[in-house]
Amino acid sequence: MTWVKTVFIVGPAGSGKTTLTSTLGRYLEEQNFKVCYVNLDAAVEDIPYEPDFDIRTYYTVSKIMKEEKIGPNLALIRSVELLLKYENDIKNLIEYVKEDYDYILVDTPGQLELTIFHEACIKIMKLFSERTRSCIVFLIPADIIRSVRDIAFLKLMALAIRYRIDVPVITAISKIDLNPNVENILNEGIDVKDVELAGTERDLVYELWNTIKKIEKKQRIVKICSITGEGLEDLHTLIYEVFCTCGDLT
Asked: Can you give the CATH number for the domain in which 36 is found?
């Protein structure tokens, strides 16, 4: 029987994925859970946790640039494509940990588009989701949220990720210490009369917001500060509810 649960940490560059992988892992270990750490980001230089699987063991972005004589953007793409060469190693890791560990935390590539658009990364994520119970924590960095329209756009991204990868998605606001106004923004709603646009643009914003409310499963949005540990307990509760047959995220 498979007991281990996989949590993919996903988000745009600078959203705090690697830091959350570390702080959430430490929190889980303090609750006496056994955690396996997986790093799939070949561009990261330093990570604050000890990975059980580290793609940098096989290659790094800087090594790809040097060997293939290509620039950083293409090397980032190649770093994701090369993941499939180590498919068997990842399968072996999953088989090794799936009954003795409680959680696998997967630190995904730094650039969100690499995670959700390149088929190699999708296939690697499916290796986990087909062999373990899996969910995604999608990070929205608080410092890029300036209005409720930003929230709407980022929620659409979360829905797109859910559609693309086909596992449950938990939305979390990271780095909340950088935006003291984020709580007020989260509590706002869009009223078409208040949108400072006209014509088609205003209709688009309004319709998108209504679409989100119709399609998105009603759920709590957890707010996290990895520096202070705020929100880690709430995040763990949501992760637990995803995997609980009787739980919901409302």
From this structure: 3.40.50.300
